[in-house]
Amino acid sequence: MNLSRMLVLAVIAAACGAFRASALDRPDVTFKIFQFPADQIPRIDGDPADWAMVPESYAIGSDQLAEDGGGHTAPDPKELEVKVKVGWVKGLNRLYFLYEASKSYWDFSRPDLRNDIFELVVDGDASGGPLVDAGHVDVWNAKAVGEMATRDSRLTTPEVHWAAHGAQAQNYHIFTPALDKDWCMAWDSATWIKELPWANAAYNYNFKPGEAGKLVLEFWITPFDYAGPEGPQRAVESVLSEDKIIGLSWAIIDHGDPKTSKQHFWNLSRHHQMFGNASYLCAFQLMPLEPPFRKPIEAQWTWKVVDMDRRLVAFKDLSVGTITAWKWDFGDGETSTEQNPIHQFKRSSSPTIVLEVEGSAGKSRRAKVGDVSLK
Fold first, then answer.
1. Domain end among 286, 320, 335
2. 42 lies in a domain?
3. Which CATH number covers residue 364?
4. Using CA of residue 51, residue 56, residue 59, residue 62, what is the dihedral sign?
5. Residue 149 in domain
6. 357: region left, alpha or beta (phi > 0 left; psi from -120 to 50 alpha)
7. Does some domain include residue 361?
8. What total of structural domains would you count in the chain?
9. Amino acid 45: pLDDT
């Protein structure tokens, strides 16, 4: 790509940022994402038993959905009843989902896009802004980028699409269920995001197209701050951490029985345009472990080299529980009682470093062997 095209694309990126909102939709609601313990990560097999530990306070049901076709009503439980739970695991940049839905009529016989769909949009850093191409003027809330592509002969509409479509937030059209086709359509240029090792899905159902029944869908996805059409080599995963707010929303696209009902689009957000503009997503918070899964006290810590030439290392306490005392043993004869000390090692080594913490719940010790390598 030549310099002039790169400059025009940079202008497009700036224009995208100009239309980003400063807040997510439904400011009165913050939905919760359950933290699974690291030794109880849900298995993606269509069996919801792994989710039994998740309190019902995390469940998001049909009562939270609204039809954005003008009626703004929740689904009739006789036609559709939905429950969704979202989870995460500390240290993994993945979002886990359990989708359970009962319907009076399931439409999934065709190999094309006509299918009952769970449409999911995620913005891992809550940066907002459009995530579909410039053809969706109602999503962009302005024609600036579309006009730029038309007005400037150096840039074509396909280039706009491939440069920006799905880059900073992702849209998954998840087929419920998928029959003889991929489990979802990744509606952006980066179609690789729906494949392992960035996503996985499993279904459990026993009905045929046109019948009633209950569907269980388990899946996980990887949110990206950048996911480009060139593939994963330049992708940037969204870093998930406790208490972080991310943008997330979903819609239920229900074709219904063609003889008796119309197509519905029930939405967790109150904006239909959430499918292509991440500023219309809802706020979801990555929660800490629930009390039953927490240890009363547990030593944990990390480190960072501040100055390699001087062998200067900063240590950060990450211990869990109410801590009243810290004791660091740096493995070189030196110790510290600070919570977050900075230590200068006298010689090159790979020492065993130990943190011992004490609190009302007792004591805990954590050693790291050879992690801090100062050669």
1. 286
2. yes
3. 2.60.40.10
4. positive
5. no
6. beta
7. yes
8. 2
9. 97
Identify the domain boundary among 242, 266, 286. Answer: 286
Tokens describing residue 22: 């400063």
CATH number at residue 95: 2.60.40.1190
Give me the residue label for tokens 């053809």. 135
Determine the pLDDT at residue 153. 58
372 against 122, higher pLDDT: 122
Q: How far apart are CA 240 and CA 181, in angstroms?
A: 30
Summarised one tens digit per residue, pLDDT across range 3-20 is: 444 444 444 444 444 344
The single residue listed with the structure tokens 């009243």 is 324
d(CA 268, CA 291): 28
pTM: 0.83
Q: Give helix 157-164 / helix 3-18 axis angle, nearest 10°.
A: 60
Residue 140 belongs to some domain of the structure: no
Q: Which DSSP symbol is given to 131?
A: -
Contact between 82 and 250 under an 8 Å Cβ cutoff? The reply is no
The 10s digit of each residue's pLDDT in 331-362 is 999 999 999 999 999 877 788 999 999 999 99
CA dist., res. 305 & res. 343, Å (int): 10
